[in-house]
C-alpha cells in the first residue's frame, strides 16, 4: 500500500517540447482564428472557414435543409450539416497533437490563463487535455 501512495505522489513525466511543437501550436491558433478569411490570395487556405467551404443552395430555400423544418428530421439534417466541419477540426487537432502542439499548449497557456480567468493550475489539464 505504501508503494502505491509513493508512486502516486511522484510528478508526471513531462516531455520536452521542441520547436516543431511550438510551431504546430502557433499555426493551429492562426488556422482556427480566422485571420486569413478575408484575405485575397493563396494564403486563404490557412483558414478553417475557407477550407470547410459551404453547401450549395436548393432552389427557393436558404440551405439544403429547406425552410421551416421542425422535429427530429430537421435535427438530423442539422447534425448532418455539422459533420464535415467537426471531422475537419478533429483531424487538424489530431495532426497538431501528433506534432507536439498540444504539449506546447499545456506549457504556454497556464501562465496566460491564470491571471485572466483566475483559475487554479489544476484546471490546465481540463482546458488543454487531449
Automatic annotation (TrEMBL):
Keywords: Membrane, Transmembrane, Transmembrane helix. The chain crosses the membrane at residues 21-39, 75-95. This is Transporter gate domain-containing protein. It comes from Salmonella enterica subsp. enterica serovar Poona.
Amino acid at each position: 500500500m505504501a508503494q502505491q501512495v509513493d508512486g502516486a505522489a511522484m510528478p508526471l513525466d513531462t516531455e520536452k517540447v521542441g520547436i516543431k511543437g511550438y510551431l504546430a501550436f502557433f499555426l493551429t491558433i492562426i488556422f482556427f482564428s480566422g485571420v486569413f478569411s478575408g484575405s485575397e490570395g493563396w494564403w486563404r487556405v490557412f483558414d478553417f472557414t475557407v477550407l470547410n467551404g459551404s453547401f450549395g443552395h436548393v432552389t427557393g430555400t436558404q440551405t439544403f435543409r429547406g425552410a421551416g423544418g421542425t422535429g427530429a428530421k430537421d435535427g438530423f439534417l442539422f447534425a448532418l450539416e455539422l459533420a464535415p466541419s467537426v471531422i475537419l477540426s478533429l483531424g487538424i487537432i489530431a495532426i497538431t497533437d501528433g506534432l507536439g502542439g498540444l504539449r506546447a499548449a499545456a506549457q504556454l497557456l497556464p501562465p496566460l490563463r491564470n491571471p485572466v480567468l483566475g483559475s487554479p493550475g489544476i484546471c490546465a489539464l481540463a482546458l488543454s487535455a487531449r
